[in-house]
Amino acid sequence: MNEKKLVQNFKSYINVSPKNNAEKNGALQEVTPKLLNGEVVVGAAHNVVMLTPLSQRHHDRGRFGSLFVTNYKLSFVPLEANTNDEKGDSSIEETSFMIPMVAGKESELSFVPLDFAQEESGQRNFLLGPHDIPLTAVGAIYLTDGATSPVRARRILVPTGEMPKKVKGLQVVCKNMLVLNFSFGQAAVGKGRTVAMALLHHAFPKRHDLLFAFECRDLYYPTLPHDLNMFVTPGDWKRELERCECPHWRITCINGTSDAFMLTAGETLIVPNSVLDYSLMESARHFRSGRVPIWVWGRPEGAALLRSGELLPTDSSATTESVYLEQVRRSHPKLTPPHVIYLCGNSVPGAPSPNSLPPLPALHASYKKLVELCTPTTLQGFWTQDSQYYSYLDSSRWLRHVGCCLAAAADAAAHLAANDTVVVLEGDGVDYCAVVSSLTQLLVDPHFRTITGFQSLVQKEWLALGHPFCDRLGLPRPGNGKDTKEPLVQSQLAPVFLLFLDCVWQLQRQFPADFEFTETYLTTLWDCTNNHLFDTFLFNCPRDRELLRDKQNFVRRPVWDWGEQFSDADIALFYNPLFPPPAARAPQRAASTPTQRLSRTPTKSPHPPEAKTFQRLQPCTSVAAMELWSQCYERWLTPLDAPAVGIVQYHVFNYAVRKEIRRLEEKLKSLSIMSNRHSNGDTETTEANPPSVVSRFYPFSHDHSNLNSRALDSMQVSLIDASQLLDSQSLLNAPD
């Protein structure tokens, strides 16, 4: 009886008579991706196998489904079995239902169990599915042989190259180092080529207005934090000037008029009080891109932090620089001359430049070597690189560049602590200036170590002052596309913003209790940097943003509205449980006791007696103290993933401890002295649940077999205290 019942309940996907043209072409089931308003499918292939990367098991070589290319993303939809069986139960089973899988190079189909709850584990994006990637996150596309065995031979595809008539397999290497392999061996003839051509065409658009941000028609209702400073209007800069209490500087809006001289910056600039707009325009003619030294941060005692471009090689450039720096000196109450930091080694003759940073092409070459280390195509290649891991890592020189940026920022912070004005100078003043200036403010100002403060810092240093995200991320420049030359854009590719995020992670690692945000927040921010649905990282400068927004039906969607993408449970992982709550935070707190204990680099500049109260983070900037940011770069390498290890596991434990402390405090408040005396023996005690075990790269890991399902009570969510984001049924407090 049981054998007969099993035979009747079995549904074959091989010898099924075709009912329509789709099934005749080999499609087993029609599935569709989730589309946003304005999103359309431009290419599709059914019966595609998404190969499991670096798999060691024969039965776990891939998933069967359909692959779609839209004008927004590359989407793989797994083909899951229909639970509408003979029992009449239309609900989805928790576990142990089957999906067809391709095993080996043959066309045999084997069935393996799929845990539905595991698909819901990890970070869930409202805009993207678990197997979706935005098109602008695609770094490179390779043609493969389509075998279900590990990819051994591949050939890169470029938009201007020829496409072969038959595409057996594709490998997509993303900018966040995720590697996706697809096999079209079971798909209809020609579908692989259709998907490849659609992916090449839409992942590398020739015009800026072809990005999906201009096509999306979803309504957006902003819910940004009230204390987030976007640095768009003169009033925003005035708030920052008043917050820093710097009375010797003034706001000028001449850059927003027809006399604008700094075309890559916004309309508002802060300059010394003694500098007139006319002399400002005259001085700008001697600096690259008109980047005269401008104020970005200051102390009430008089020290200020300025950014500047390099001088142009003219006869009167040196004189102009001396005159302008004299005005900067007069802005200091003690008339202290400013300290100039040359980031790229272009200092005065004879001056040493030990911390000079590389040119952008060298930085990009270093990043490409790092990508090669973190994206092995075969398991054998992974173990070969692992045996010489530190040699490969050192040859990339990536950590050396990170250390140089931190050293320059520590030098600037030391002079600011000594009440000396600092001028950071580099090239056009839009790349390394943004990195070092932002890091310096993180070291000296605790406001920027909060989440909203950090977001305000990015708005000020990277958006308002015009970091060219289009050129650095490989996006087309705003315009009609005719004036954009591909060699020019390729020569300006450089992961400058990723370098900055890596430096911030190094500071987080050295000072774990001084930042409100976690490494999960930084990793998510890097992923969102390559998501062209948001306008935050979509332009080269504020001027391009304003001009193009007026011409197009464009809706601004800042990435800082995290509720548009993630649930409260995911946002909870952005908050550091070790960071003190607002009630316990001192208003002028600049560095905690652990900061002084961990500081290893003594201050070189002498501190006057009145400046001794100024505290800052003093990181170790030696390259020996730098580590690879594993969660960001190695999260897709399944052999490196393991349960109960990594920084996120410490956060899990700290969340559980903070929750238990809060529970005990509330219990103490509810008990009076008399009731405690009479009912001490009757009081019911509740044992705290042990913290859950999560994987090393949670919530980005591929393997969720060791994770528990999570469910946050939305009524207990509070963004003020991150510990309140976790209730007794959440992932971070669930029993093992």
Description of the molecule:
32% of the residues lie in helices and 12% in strands. It is an alpha+beta fold. The protein folds into 3 domains: 25-83 and 94-204, Pleckstrin-homology domain (PH domain)/Phosphotyrosine-binding domain (PTB) (PH-domain like), CATH 2.30.29.30; 234-358 and 397-611, no CATH class; 630-672 and 687-733, no CATH class. Helix 11 crosses helix 16 (496-510) and helix 12 (432-444) packs antiparallel against helix 13 (451-464). It is globular and about 75 Å long.
Question: Any chance you could write out the topology, listing elements then pairs?
Answer:
Elements: H1 2-9, H2 21-24, E1 41-51, E2 62-70, E3 73-78, E4 97-102, E5 109-114, H3 116-119, E6 132-134, E7 138-144, E8 154-157, E9 169-174, E10 179-183, H4 191-203, H5 234-244, E11 249-252, E12 269-272, H6 277-284, E13 294-298, E14 304-308, H7 317-330, E15 339-342, H8 360-374, H9 379-387, H10 389-396, H11 398-417, E16 422-425, H12 432-444, H13 451-464, H14 469-473, H15 486-491, H16 496-510, H17 519-529, H18 542-551, H19 568-572, H20 593-598, H21 630-633, H22 647-670, H23 673-678
Parallel strand pairs: 14-16, 15-16
Antiparallel strand pairs: 1-2, 1-10, 2-3, 3-6, 4-5, 7-8, 7-9, 9-10, 11-12, 13-14
Helix pairs in contact: 8-10, 11-12, 11-16, 12-13, 12-16, 16-17
